[in-house]
Amino acid sequence: MSIFFEIGAKTNFSFLEGASKPEEMIVQAAILKLGGLGIADRNSVAGVVRAHAQSKAIQKKFERMRAGLLEEHEKNDVILNPIHFQPGARLVFSDGTPDILAYPQDRKGWAHLCRLLSAGNLRAEKGKCILTEADLMEWGDDMMLALVPDPSIAGHGNHEAFEGCLERFRKRFRKNFHMALAPAYDGRDKRMFATISLLADRNRIPLIATNQPLYHDTTRRPLADIVTSIREHVPIPEAGFLLAPNAERFLKNDGEILRLFRDYPHAVTNTEKFFGSLSFSLDELEHNYPPENDEGETPYQTLERLTKAGAAKRFPGKIPEKVQRNIEYELSLVRQKQYEPYFLTVHRIIQYARHEKKILCQGRGSAANSVICYCLEITEVNPEKSTLLFDRFLSMDRDEPPDIDVDFEHERREEVIQHIYEKYGKEHAGLTAGVTTYRTRSAGREVSKAFGLSEDVQSAIGSLVWGWSEEKLSEREAKAAGLDIFDPMTKNVLKYASELLGFPRHLTQHVGGFVITRDRLDEVVPIMKTAMPGRYMVEWDKDDLDNLKILKVDILALGMLTALKRAFDLLLLHYDVKKTLADLGNDTHADEEPVYEMICRADTLGVFQIESRAQMSMLPRLKPKKFYDLVIEVAIVRPGPIQGDMVHPYLKRREDRDRGIPIEYPSKELESVLERTLGVPLFQEQAMQIAITAAGFKPAEADQLRRAMATFKRTGTIGNFEKRFIEGMVAKKYSRDFAQQCFNQIKGFGEYGFPESHAASFALLVYASSWVKAYYPDVFCAAMLNSQPMGFYAPAQLVRDAREHGVVIRPVDINESNWDCLLEEAEFNKRAVDFRHAVMREVIQTKRAVRLGFRQIKGLSEVSMQQLVANRGRGYSSIRDLWLRSGLQKADIERLADADAFGSIRLSRREALWAVRALDAKSAAEKLPLFDQVSHIDLQVEPETRLPEMLAGEQVVEDYRYLSLSLKGHPVSFLRDEFRKVGVVRNVDLLTIPNGRRVTIAGLVLVRQRPGSAKGVIFMTLEDETGVANAIVWKKVFEKYRPIVMGARLVKIYGKLQSQSGVIHTVVDHIEDMTPALGILQKEARRFGVSDRSDEALNPSMDPSQRKLANSLEKAVMEKRLISSGHVGVIETTQVMPKGRNFH
Amino acid sequence: MRLTALDEAAEALSLRKNMGVAEARAIYPKLDVIEDDPVANRRFLEAIADWCDRYTPLVALDGVDGLFLDITGCAHLFGGETALLKDILARLFQMGLDARGAVSSSPGLSWAVSRFGQGGIIEHGEAEQALVPLPVAALRLEDETIGALNKTGLKYVGDLLDAPRAPLARRFGGSVLLRLDQALGTDEEPVSPRLPVASLSVERRLIEPIGAEDDILALTNQIAVSLKPSLEARGIGGRIFELVLFRVDGKVFRLSAGTAQPLREPKRVAALFAERLQAIHDDFDAGYGFEILRLNVLLHEDFVTSQGDFEHRQQKDVSLAAFVDRVSARLGEDCLQTFQLRESHIPERAVITVPAIDHLSTQKTREGHPPPARNERPIRLLRKPEPMDAFAVEVPDGAPASFHWRRMQHRVRKSEGPERLAMEWWRDGSDAENRDYFRIEDDQGRRFWIYRHGHYERDTAQSWYMHGVIA
């Protein structure tokens, strides 16, 4: 055993300073067989949990080897000796005090360290820490301390101030205080050592040796220089003295340390004593749950009571046998694991939100769909219907807390967060940190910057990948970006960018993870500021907290819950229909048939999850008929199953089943696992079950497999399981092919695989939103508009869809609208329902029209519009009246005019604008009291100005500009004449065109989508006045027409129609940019809704050949007119039209 | 990053100004983007303005891409307005510039017609007619005002001309009417020239361009001769002269030379420029020759006949900077070099030589980082480290007990070190060996700076080098 214990190591959590991960440090220390390793990052303990976990993993493996318990596949691994690890921090002061390495001796010392760092964090802006000597004096008890003198101390003779400092610390901390001796290799180490040793002796302070490693191995020196260069914003060749002169600050072994300190052997032996007095372990922090039991009960008793009461409510009459058994089983597991407080905490938060605040919420996540959670009303998904693997969440081997995420209405999540702060106090609740790490793009960019490459090359390297990825930069990609891979510089950039991948850059707040502790939070972990005032986060991320078994609840925001809540409120108010999520749960319902029928038709624009193009094209084939079908639908149209090639087998088996062909399962034991998904593994749980039942994995191993699946791209550890999995299955007499196929599918899940519990929770929202849309499209439309932005579609599409379902939409108006969209009395006209949705005519219950709210107008604030509404009284009679009474700014009124919101007082857009511009702020302020009585008539007389009348097309353009939609007409409708003559069919007409025919379609580009799973294929969604059309652009075609696909706002497409069971796509052969044609809207006076096919009828006498000639001539003329419709106004008009959103 | 300008090819595509570069690259991944350089753009515009000096001394810059030329009284020299405009545009076109222009009685009108109309000559009384079909943006209005006018349907200047004035002013501010009046010429708008107009100026236009320095000087002399009577007539002499050389391809050189005393003597005036021409020798490229030479008197004073002691004055106040300036100006910047510290841990890379003139001018602004704490460096560094025989007893990183260098055996009495320096991996590769430096004193009291090359764990053979002498 070594007698050297390194106490000065930094990791890459000393951001842009350390150049090795905490795990690497630990492993290297174990390889070197050091006595122990302490990690002391700059004013932070953010990296210590990772080091702790790594040292525990080494320990466990070592113990298993000792006990002869190694698995077959581990036998050849190198087994490292356990390494003693201690967490600490390097305190860097802002007042000139030398750095101090601080290590807590026990739990109390840890609390002090956390308080100390918290104090420094809270004093500084986010990401900084300001410490002074006084802080250490206040919080320095129960810690071992080592002061690190600056090496320049040997250079000057006056040590008075320094010794004064030593004196103060020694008096205060006595034998806990040390002075570090660290070699600098600057040629003066002997002198420096002698000076420090002299000072130490004179002040009776023990010396302690450290090499202050910044990286685990010398090979990391280049990376250390690179992070320095990134930190200092200087390219390496110019960084000069900012870089270290040598590569000596790596983790050194015993022998080398003893040699370096040969004149001061006690400095080395002191490291052992120093370490010997540290008894703190991070494990002491586990199970730090707040007490949640009711008075007079243990937490278990409370949980049991609440669960039983809930069960009685959930299952009126008799609780089914199976449920009863599950409850008891789950309760006993929870009791063994002592997780009662966790379930109680989540239960209480949800109860509060749901019953006191009336906020819609729903739990999901690994433990959420257990029977207990159903009974505690954490979820609405009845677990009776699915065979969930509860063990998975609470396996005996895996000692980490279950994970429950709770979704709340996105606009009201804040209230829940405030409640948590109130209930538990800021001392006990805080946000989880998220560690932002270097990804391919950022690593590539930063490293090329460090090498001083031009910005062009930086962005070329940064853009090597589409989107985010952690895959290494490959030479192939580099070539694609036009880089010379034989150039040593390029090689270096690629090499070190890959090394930098996964390094932390900084801490951010996690979206909603809350840490709640029994002990004071700032005595468990240092807390720090976030970007939001009054909100604090801890230094650890969710994996760290998991590792330490500290409670975390994810308080998340979900837009659809907001929309549903609004829909339920509107239903109650206008239709006296009372609905809750539970009412629309995973049961069979008397009125469900039309809902499923609608889903089968893919009439699901705006519906949760199943509104995307991919989902919509799946629906008519999958034909969901019951709740579980929706669960599958949600899970199947995801990159995981698509890449794992599961979609088609599933569809095929479904068709087989419907035809009465029995489904074959590879074995009896797998039948029970795969039955509900017809033999195709779709869910993570099934992958685990296959591993357990067919490949002979232990539950804990299966869980490791699951975690490997979730992070497989990042860590690449899934390969370790492959051999074992396949051999395991082969041993159980499955064919190798089948085993390989199963494994490939599991690998395909990657990061995208859905656990069944998630899918079930989401499916519930799918059904609920579909139900509202089916019966009350008016309510659905208003609720969706009031919850924007969310989902796949913009307001323009939601409005059009509602109108196609017979809903009357009324324009924004100063005298009618509120901030939110409202429902107004109206007749439902069955004939207004588009023929495509004809079956809904008898289903729809709508009796209201939607009045658009001020929120649709761009650039208006809610506060000022509330003011307008509050002062409206019996209505505004003129613009001047509005101005004087509402207290609005002139700019706001002008914006209302821009949005054409003066219909009720019969002012056109231009008239209103003209009047608004005439308002004079100064004179108004003077005259207001005087004119208060005279009812605000504009008394100024001025010559009349005749304004040009606005063209219909212009109206639409302006509507789009300020409202992003127009109720007056669709831009494409103004081009219809020309379009028809050049052979463009309307999108609605595609329904009647047979499969395989070539067609020409045209429309505004709404969406471009390039799913990762589709091998470079782009899906485009076009919109014309009759509806949307989907187009498929193959990679080859895309390369040819890339500028048009990516840049055009209006396109004309020629291609082959694919029409299969109601799913219609056009496969693009040729695509043309028609954007300039939009200039017609500004130029030519056209009526709204031109569409008479009378021209042919006018010339019945013309003979066919003549007519053909005339037609082709006319076609040429039209083509020309479309393309060359002038330059003025075109650019301006096209800017207003939607850009088309890009999804990946 | 946004696109600020497009070339013709890009304009023909669906790209446009103000588009984000990322967006443009999504459409055209191979798009060639050059970073906007407003300073260079400005320099370029100024160069064109300089060139326009050939038409009139009253040239003003207009924004970042336009010029105003006040050609009052000049047009006849070029055969009238039409010919002048044609000449300018033709020559600019030959230089590869796509320029448009208009001649009218007011700057505002010319601006509107050249940017939004067809350009050309607008005769008196045609102003209104020319303006009517132009968009309101042609009136040099703020973007906000243009937007507001467009929204109310007042899209063309004609709409504004028709409308009553008071309501317009009330809604869109006075600037609309002011700009309208300026364009119509009813409101005077002066053009402020960018260069001072010379108090006296004489020029020669050449049929056959000249290029040789001697020719230029001879011609300068001739021009100066014709300048002399004018100077005499006014009783003045020039203090600052400017020689403007218009090169055939449009480039304009301006050389100015000052004198300590007012001057009229043609030979001496020409001599002033002889020195200047020599000084700028490298930058001075006659190309295909110069077609116009102009001599301006930028500053003049009353001519006094008595002169001071010219020679004597020059001897005083010759500072180092002035010396460096003069020598560098004559013999080229590279002839005087000075040492400059460079931040590098590698001793031979820590010093570079730079032209003295650069060093003097940049010395104050450069702020380096202080060197890290380390041992003192030797006073003399050998140009190249010299290998030597030495042997260290103490492994792995002790100093040698004795060494043999330049045919002398040295016995080491005292040593300090090692100072370990790792080579610069990004230049030397990541397997470049370390150096361990020692400060050494031999038994004669001589001090040296030596190093051992190599990695102490990998190499058993020791290779030692002498790198500096301390005293």
List keywords for this structure.
heterodimer, A: 1144 residues, alpha/beta, 44% helix, globular, B: 471 residues, alpha+beta, six-stranded antiparallel β-barrel, four-stranded antiparallel β-sheet, 16 strands
Task: Sum this structure up briefly.
With 1144 residues, chain A is of the alpha/beta class. In chain A, 44% of the residues lie in helices and 13% in strands. Chain B contains 16 helices and 16 strands.
Largest sheet of chain A: 7 strands, mixed
Q: Order of strands in the sheet with the most strands of chain B? A: 11-12-13-14-15-16
Basic shape of chain A? globular
How would you write the strand order of the largest sheet of chain A? 1-2-3-4-5-6-7
Description:
The complex is a heterodimer of chains A (1144) and B (471). With 1144 residues, chain A is of the alpha/beta class. In chain A, 44% of the residues lie in helices and 13% in strands. Chain A contains 48 helices and 23 strands. In chain A, strand 19 and strand 20 form a beta hairpin. In chain A, helix 1 (22-31) runs parallel beside helix 2, helix 7 packs across helix 17 (440-450) and helix 25 crosses helix 34 (756-775). Chain A is globular, with a radius of gyration of 35 Å. The two termini of chain A are 54 Å apart. Residues 390-394, 466-471, 929-937 and 1090-1100 of chain A have low confidence and may be disordered. With 471 residues, chain B is of the alpha+beta class. Helix content of chain B is 33%, strand content 27%. In chain B, a hairpin with a 4-residue loop joins strand 14 and strand 15 (447-453). In chain B, helix 9 packs across helix 10 (174-184) and helix 11 packs across helix 12 (266-279). Chain B is elongated and about 105 Å long. The two termini of chain B are 57 Å apart. Mean pLDDT of chain B is 83; it is low at 312-317. Chains A and B meet through helix 7, helix 8, helix 40 and helix 44 of A and helix 2, helix 9, strand 13, helix 16 and strand 14 of B.
